[in-house]
Each structure stands twice: as C-alpha cells, then as structure tokens.
Input
Amino acid sequence: MLPYASLLSLLKVIIMPTKIHKLLLLCTGNTCRSQMAHAMAHQWAQLNGLNVEIESRGIRANAGDATTAEAILVLSQAQIHWQGTSQPLTVADLRWADDVWAMTQEHLDCATQLGTELNQDSFPRCELLAGAHELVDPLNCGLAAYELLFFSLQELLPKRLAAIQTPSVA
Output
C-alpha cells in the first residue's frame, strides 16, 4: 500500500495535465545554427523526458531551404538524424512560443520589432541562447566552424533545457 503523500503525488501526475513548454530557436537563415540547436534540443528533450515542443525559424529565411550539408554531417556524426527545412519568423511564431532563444542580438531585436503588435502578456521571454555571447554563423566557414558550433551547443543546450524542466522559484 502506498503512503498517502506518494498516492497524492501519483494522482497529480495522472489527473493534472502538464503544460507543454514551447521553445523557438532563432537565427538568420534557419539552415545552420537554429536547425542544429533544434535537432540537438529535440534529442536531449526526448532522452530526458522534457515536455517541450521545439521549433526553429530565421529572420531572413527562405521557406523550404534545406539544412546545410555540413550541419547534417556534424549532427549525423553524433547519431542525430535530422532533415529540417527553413521557415521565416512570423508574429504567429512569437505568439506560440513561451521562450525564444536567439543566436545574436540582431535576431532578438528582429523578434522584438516583429512582436510589437503582441500585448505584453502574450510576448515570449526572449534571450540569447548563449547568455551574454552570440553564436557565430558557420555558413561558408567550413566544417570546423560547424563542429565548433556543435560543441558550443552541446554545452549550452542541456543547461538551458534543464532550467525549463526545473524553473527557478522567483
């Protein structure tokens, strides 16, 4: 027989639906940085049971462009199978998201400008993914730049995603 406290906790899990956290990753063309972060965050969330939906967009993306071959290669070397396509950032994306993690200040500024029509209550929390630092675009910089980005994301994403899983008490 389960103790009362354990039974109560179990009932809360069964009865109370957990909110799905909505995370939007943002870069320029949505073919390198945000796609890699999307793939890696998706894998981490699945492996760690995080209740999150993840999307990625670009401030100057061409809808339907494929993830770059270098990004696909670096991800596949880490056993992450990914076939993403780019999507441009829209107001609807900002309305959907709980959090927006951008690669650069320019991306944050664009999201803020685009979201001016949203009321303050529906505007997502927007931050640089790397805190005070920007993540450099690896496009046209060779495979080593993609590998460096991968290692940066590999360090950043688990910490940021874990914070979603266990938010701090304000």
In short: The longest helix spans residues 143-165. The helical segments are 4-15, 33-47, 69-77, 91-96, 105-114, 143-165. The longest strand covers residues 21-27. The domain at 20-162 is CATH 3.40.50.2300 (Rossmann fold).
